[in-house]
Design goal:
By secondary structure, this protein is an all-alpha fold. Helix content is 63%, strand content 0%.
């Protein structure tokens, strides 16, 4: 299962890397304070968006486990309440995708919000609804979705301990992604202030403080996943595959993270 998930995730991250291309570091004056602020919000809220998206799927799976949900609505391209949780088709405001898109517009697009600035490395400086605001939502959505079949591999028939393991895995993956994003964000912020170098922040980070931050986050959420999945009878039954442990899940999450960070904190 791990090899299969790694291939799926690698494809989604590679697509992002190809779209963004090679980028310089986010150093001043090429990257202004306003542009860096955009990067900070885009990365941070991208992690929150991933958490919200997995939460939508988790709620759907809880309905399936209780016997009243439709399993088809819990998998991409989603449907019913799960689709509505992700996209507000009426007002375009309340869905997880809507909220992330609006953050990018408010923090990055000078047309939508005068006084803001979009980095040139984001779609050539286009953070509009047809530019980075749309592309980043779809990028992170696709990457998050690549985890769904593996995390929630057992639907109807899953015992309570198996359900808890899958819920904890989804939450642990999302929480680790968010915590690790903060570690990198802090490193780049310090580098802009002359504390450390941008090269030390580039994944895999060699900066000591960032490494310590990443190690602590990994230990915390690895334990969070394993404390539920190591209980007797807790591992979901996923056909011929053995359900990954906390270390393996966070290794996959690290691949996801390290694929995104250079494109999020890029040079204009």
């Amino acid at each position: 299962m791990v090899a299969h998930l790694k291939l799926m995730l690698a494809c989604t991250v590679a697509g992002l890397a190809m779209a963004q291309g090679a980028r310089a570091q986010p150093a001043a004056p090429d990257v202004t304070d306003l542009e860096f602020s955009c990067m900070h919000y885009l990365a941070g809220y991208g992690a929150k968006f991933a958490y919200a998206r997995l939460k939508c799927v988790t709620k759907c799976m809880q309905g399936v486990w209780k016997g009243y949900g439709d399993p088809a609505e819990c998998s991409p391209p989603y449907g019913g309440a799960t689709a509505s949780c992700m996209v507000d088709s009426v007002y375009n405001l309340k869905g997880a995708e809507d909220k992330y898109r609006l953050v990018i517009l408010k923090k990055c697009d000078p047309v939508y919000k005068p006084g803001k600035d979009c980095p040139e490395c984001y779609n050539g400086g286009d953070c509009s609804e047809t530019g980075a605001a749309s592309d980043w939502v779809q990028n992170v959505a696709g990457q998050t979705d690549s985890f769904v079949p593996g995390v929630f591999c057992e639907g109807t028939g899953a015992q309570y301990t198996e359900q808890t393991c899958q819920r904890s895995t989804a939450k642990g993956v999302a929480k680790y992604y968010a915590a690790a994003t903060k570690c990198y964000d802090k490193c780049y912020l310090y580098a802009r202030r002359g504390i450390g170098t941008f090269a030390e922040c580039a994944p895999p980070a060699t900066d000591g403080g960032t490494n310590g931050c990443l190690t602590a986050a990994n230990a915390k959420y690895r334990a969070f996943i394993d404390q539920e999945c190591h209980k007797p009878g807790a591992l979901p039954e996923c056909g011929p595959f053995t359900y990954p442990d906390g270390t393996q899940w966070l290794d996959l999450t690290r691949i996801w993270l390290e694929g995104n960070i250079p494109a999020q904190f890029c040079g204009s």
